[in-house]
Design goal:
By secondary structure, the protein is an alpha/beta fold. The protein is built from 11 helices and 8 strands. Helix 1 crosses helix 11.
Length: 314
């Protein structure tokens, strides 16, 4: 069987802020659900935008059903840490006193790497959950709306760092389980989201290299979002570029608008070409939607692009 994104257990979606990774996370879930996958969407940060794509204000900290076979959950690292203490401190009164202490509050916020390892540990636990009757995975696919690329690198580097610090104990054991999940290319992968612009393309290419060389994580594909349509044929472009714009008239604004569109698309295509030639993984393209607020039908439209394109090639 071909090793595609649909055959993974966990997909981490990341990209430069503003590239549309949250929207693509939602669309990927809808596309995977159309393949009869039970999908869990995981929100790992505080912008709470994923819920709006499914008619909710925000996800809860327990998985809730969004559609027939789509669930959503928000991971709060502090809550996960509280559950961790309750799990390993077997005396409830002592666990309660630890959680309520001011030291715990400071520790939960300030301890380096703690937030990241709590997020990844919770994702690992979701990946391990089984159906009580069939013993098969409760979720066929977990799609994580990960932090933007800069913070994403920190998130994925934490397990290796902690393993070098803690050789024994429950944190060390759990962190090794997490690292195994991240570095097992049959279980997990990264999907990078970029805009057809210089800085997002630079970040995507840099992250792709670091994922492979530093993190030892597999990249399944790079999604280029918000691509302007090809309105004019090559012959029409040549005619427009030759037209005389020295004479004022009613056609002048339309001509200027046409030329701007042609220039924007050429610039975008040059950045896409760079991703294709300099990158090492499939590049999948999504169209530009002329709105700041995508509706449900437009999200489903993007999901169809992903179902018929990305899921068949990556």
């Amino acid at each position: 069987m071909k090793d595609t994104i649909l055959n993974k257990r966990v997909v981490f979606v990341t990209g430069k802020g503003g590239a549309g990774k949250t929207t693509i996370t939602a669309a990927m879930a809808i596309a995977a659900a159309s393949h009869n996958k039970n999908v869990l969407i995981v929100e790992t940060h505080e912008n709470e935008a994923l819920g709006s794509h499914f008619g909710q204000i925000r996800f809860t900290e327990k998985p809730s059903r969004l559609d027939s076979n789509i669930w959503g959950v928000r991971i709060d690292p502090k809550t996960v840490l509280e559950e961790y203490i309750q799990r390993y401190v077997t005396v409830p009164f002592v666990a309660y006193q630890i959680i309520q202490s001011r030291i715990f509050e400071h520790f939960a916020v300030a301890a380096p790497g703690l937030k990241e390892v709590m997020i990844l540990s919770e994702i690992w636990r979701f990946e391990q959950k089984k159906n009580s009757n069939t013993k098969t995975p409760l979720y066929d696919l977990i799609i994580v709306d990960s932090p933007a690329t800069g913070h994403g690198l920190s998130l994925f580097r934490v397990p290796s760092t902690l393993i070098s610090m803690f050789q024994t104990g429950p944190i060390a054991v759990q962190t090794r389980w997490v690292e195994d999940m991240l570095k097992d290319s049959t279980r997990s992968c990264l999907v990078l989201v970029a805009l057809p612009e210089e800085l997002p393309v630079n970040e995507a290419l840099e992250f792709e290299r670091k994922a492979e060389n530093d993190l030892n994580m597999g990249v399944a594909a790079i999604i280029v979002n918000m691509i302007y349509p090809e309105i004019f044929s090559p012959n029409e472009v040549a005619v427009i570029e030759r037209m005389d714009n020295s004479e004022p008239g009613k056609k002048q604004p339309a001509l200027e608008a046409a030329r701007r569109q042609i220039v924007r698309r050429k610039v975008q295509q040059s950045h896409i070409h760079r991703l294709i030639t300099e990158g090492e993984h499939p590049v999948f393209q999504l169209p530009f939607y002329y709105t700041n607020n995508l509706d449900q039908e437009q999200i489903k439209d993007i999901a169809e692009y992903i179902r018929t394109g990305l899921f068949k090639t990556a």
